[in-house]
Write a structure and sequence with these properties.
The structure is a homodimer. By secondary structure, the first copy, chain A, is α/β, with parallel strands linked by helices. Helices cover 40% and strands 11% of the residues of chain A.
């Protein structure tokens, strides 16, 4: 016997199943929850998502999500304008801001080069980065320490270095609070290689 | 420094964080995904949720979710009408239908008695169950084997038995494919007590 699911429930579950990391079980659970909510709350939920999507735009300068033409960070007078930290996604900007200690600007690529997935230099915000380098002294490549992240950092580094701009890369090493015995070989080798004097 | 999140992103994340089992990290991840979708897809997502909620109603007979006045199961001529399987939620109906082997009707309580949470007999669909027992021979209490599930089964059983209707309860025992050593004491004791002849 096949699974019995009512039409409204199937429709709601189908929507949630579109979300990344949401499997069919979770989607059904969320759908049940949604169908048990008062109708006005479901409307509010739906309207706010559409409103968020409609109001979002990319900052003219750093390409991060914002409501304005220029995002809060780019328009902040107190931040140094000669340093740009290049990241894959808006999530990474949040991570750096949460960590604190960086007062330069950002540039959000909205993706990483990935020839296997058909993502080329035209698909991510590299052009926009090159266009804003006139007064910049240092570009910090802060893409993830993965194959795609490394390749993208290398690619962009090769474009920028000839302009006489310093290009740096985030340090590899042991994560704080971790244990040596659980570190993978590459991390351990890099941590040894990049050891610093005490 | 506090976390930097743009307004549209915060708005979208806030919506997802309302969902059960979705923490702030997951909500942000889903919000990023949503803001990267084309606007028409976000609209479709939102519209379908509202549509699902608007079209859903409770079956006049069994109280399960449906689009019609009478759900597919209640209006199915091939199912026996003298057996009612009482469950907590529409999820449980799906589970039984998926497992197969049951061809009677259901009754969805939409909750379990829980005095601690202020859920009394008036808050769940007990009245509606009592109103449909005229030609019923057996009521199978299929609430979860938890404190609330047991209490609800006992309570309803006590109401129905005086009407001369057979009231049964799902069997306790070892789940198929499990191992004795991992079974809890109550389950093991029940499995021993309810042993059957080979």
């Amino acid at each position: 016997m096949s699974e019995y699911v009512s039409v409204p429930l199937a429709l709601a579950a189908e929507q949630f199943a579109k979300l990344p990391g949401v499997g069919i079980k979770t989607a059904q659970r969320l759908a049940y929850y949604m169908l048990n909510l008062p109708e006005n709350e479901v409307k509010e939920f739906a309207d706010n998502l559409v409103k968020a999507r409609q109001s979002v735009r990319l900052c003219r300068c750093c390409q991060n999500f914002t409501e304005q033409e220029l995002c809060e960070i780019c328009s902040d007078e107190n931040r140094r304008k000669d340093q740009i930290c290049v990241v894959e996604s808006p999530k990474d900007v949040s991570a750096f801001e949460r960590a604190g200690g960086y007062d330069g600007l950002y540039h959000v690529l909205h993706g990483l080069l990935s020839p296997m997935d058909g993502v080329t230099a035209e698909d991510i915000k590299i052009k926009e980065l090159l266009a804003r380098l006139s007064d910049v002294k240092e570009v910090i490549m802060a893409t993830n320490p993965t194959v795609e992240g490394e390749a993208t950092a290398m690619y962009i580094g090769r474009l920028i270095k000839p302009m006489g701009i310093k290009v740096t890369r985030l340090a590899y090493g042991l994560p704080a609070g971790s244990a040596l015995e659980f570190a993978d070989d590459v991390t351990l080798a890099k941590a040894l290689e990049n050891r610093s004097e005490l």
